[in-house]
Write a structure and sequence with these properties.
This protein has 223 residues and is an alpha/beta fold. It contains 7 helices and 8 strands, in the order βαβαβαβαβαββαβα. The chain starts with 7 loop residues before the first strand and ends in a 15-residue tail after the last helix. The model has no long low-confidence stretch (mean pLDDT 97). The structure holds NADP nicotinamide-adenine-dinucleotide phosphate. The site of NADP nicotinamide-adenine-dinucleotide phosphate has 26 residues, from helix 1 and helix 4.
Length: 223
């Protein structure tokens, strides 16, 4: 018997990156809850996604706390300025679950410069806010939303770092389901590199006049 896929709540799933991930995972058969500060905004993101996907997909729109309460895995895709408040709003519903943090702690206007928060990284800040009862895993920071809202292969690998190997293994399954190659890149202390790399990629985009540069790991056989 095949195991049922877990329900994924995407907090701030009304935005560019969240909608792209929702498209990929809903298409792969995961039940998806789009979270927002406003129910109506979540529902209109769902309507937009439904137009692009088969009728059989499971997508629902609701507030962030409602989505967090009803899902088995949480994903946060909000600007860093909204990171703390969003996490505080769902803290009680996240306990015992995995939170995939996609947030990059960019500090506008100097977004091509690495500027980490006092906790060390957004992922470590999430762990401080949510507590030891939540597994926090960083992933997708280096994947531009422009690659996600279509079925084209993504030529950028996903580095997965987080608070436990078991949680990283679960998130690697989500990376694969979204059609990307992921690598277990170690503990949550390594989040500084994964999150910081986004500013390097933003710099490369400007420097070389491209839209979405990316990275690929070499030297390890690909299946
Ligand atoms: N865009 C990319 O290509 C990309 C790539 C990799 C990583 N990321 C990271 O992923 C995160 C989301 O990026 P994005 O481009 O998807 O962002 P976005 O579209 O600007 O915002 C995503 C959602 O966050 C919520 N939000 C925005 N401002 C807020 C505020 N002040 N308070 C509370 N909620 C707020 C909004 O949801 P509601 O209004 O519905 O609540 C919004 O739809 C960022 O940390 C970004 O660095 C982005």
């Amino acid at each position: 018997m095949t195991e049922a896929l877990p329900t994924i709540a995407i907090l701030g799933g009304t935005g560019k990156e969240g909608k792209g991930l929702a498209y990929r995972w809903a298409g792969a058969g995961y039940p998806i809850l789009i979270g927002s500060r406003q129910t109506e905004k979540a529902q209109s993101a769902v309507a937009e996604l439904r137009k692009l996907l088969p009728a059989t997909v499971y997508l629902e729109g609701m507030t962030n706390p409602e989505a967090a309460q009803q899902a088995g895995i949480l994903v946060i895709t909000v600007p860093f300025a909204a990171h703390r408040a969003t996490l505080e709003s769902i803290r009680e519903y996240a306990q015992g679950k995995i939170l995939v943090d996609v947030t990059v702690p960019l500090v506008p206007p100097k977004v091509s410069r690495v500027q980490m928060p006092p906790a060390g990284s957004a992922a470590q800040e999430a762990r401080e806010i949510l507590g030891e009862g939540v597994e926090v895993v960083d992933a997708f920071q280096n994947i531009s939303y422009e690659h996600l809202l279509n079925d084209e292969p993504v030529e950028c690998d996903v580095l997965v770092v987080g608070s436990s190997k078991a949680a990283r293994t679960e998130v690697l399954k989500l990376v694969q389901a979204a059609g990307m190659v992921g690598w277990d890149a170690g503990t949550i202390e390594n989040a500084v590199v994964v999150e910081g790399l986004t500013s390097v990629l933003i710099y490369l985009n400007k420097q070389y006049g491209v839209e979405s540069s990316g990275i690929r790991i070499t030297g390890i056989p690909r299946d």
